[in-house]
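[job 0412] stage=fold_complex status=start
inputs:
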Amino acid sequence: MNIEKSRISPLQFMFAIMCFIRSSSLLSSFFTPIVNQDSWLVIIFGMIVSLPVLWIYISLSKAFPKSNLIEINDLVFGRIGGKIISAFYLWFFFTLTALNLRDLGIFVGKSTMSKTPPVLIIIVFILLCAWAVYYGLEVVTRYGIVFILISSAILLLSFLVSINIMHRESFLPILNQPLKSYIQGTNIITMIPFGELVVFLMIVPYVDFKQKKLVRYFMGGFLLGGLLLLAVILRDLAILGNTLKYFSLPSFETLRIIRLFDSLGHMEILFAILLIILLFFKVTLLFYISLLALSYWLKIETFRPFILPVAALLVAYSFIMFESSMQQTAFAREIIPFFWPIFEMLLPFITLIVAYIRELPKKNREKEKEDVKV
Amino acid sequence: MIILIIVFIIMLMIDLPSVIRNGKKKILIAYGLIFTFSFTICLLLALEINIKSPLMFVDEFYKNILHFSY
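[job 0412] stage=fold_complex status=done
writing structure:
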């Protein structure tokens, strides 16, 4: 069964990963109040801790180059076991999509359109995403490169115009927090943007690259995306200093206080535009992956008829998942670091181990060689 | 609520012809189930009936049973 017929280039794949990580800069307030001035260090720790997790994803992709995560589960755990495990993943993908949709609704409501009901913002947004999803993976990932270029240009510009209000003292004292804070901060950053890269296991089979290059593009996207996230935190910290922990949207506040000459201010609108663009990319990709996973799970050749009912379900889910933003932040800080690892580390690791015990990658390679000969 | 019903009827008008034309029973059943589930959840939300979030079950399970949280 092959639902997705189009193929994307390795560069599109790499930029999709970068865009995915970069769009998580909205969520920096999950860990900045925990580690304060050492928030930038936590990103570096998170990137180091995420490397073995990424190795699991890359190994799985290499072992089953022509199968996505749902197909891998079926191959490794059998029909019934695979279906049960895939059902958990399916719920995880839907939850991620709804969470990001909710984030966007709250952000736009708070920052730019405070008098518009969030439900209206979310409905308009999901319709736009549904439109992109209808045309498949190539359209979903096509503009990743453009979005990253725009976001990097804005980041660079904000660095240049704010250099006179940056303070070196904002980073001091280094490593002065309790050990538990570093563990919690690293755990959050590892689980929230970096571990979520597990969703890319759904689209790796549709990327046009030789297997040796998989590591280069997967890792490249991860490292560059992580560095962009680090740059955002460094800028916010250098400008806001110790007050960073009091803001729910630090980057928004940073750009609000930047002034160029006497007349040019309120650059936060750039951040708002940028974030809407990046979240559009992330929600579209997650929405596409959820639908792709759903149709593979149901073994149905198309996902297009399900786009609208699933979009309606996502809108409803984004409203019922939390009663308030405070509850969401508390969940992200306290529970997600223990709950997301089931989907992002434990299940992929068990899949990899079972696949190697059953010698599936070897059998897979032999089968592929036979197919080539035929 | 009337708006919600109208929206779902429009959705049905957009999707159903292609699903029926496709001719596969499996797609029709899956579409019917997903559509009904989605409509039910949206209707409950519109009627302001409290739906417990699955994430809150997870929250309670981790905090009260596993005692796993920061």
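[job 0412] summary: DSSP finds three helices and no strands in chain B.
[job 0412] exit 0
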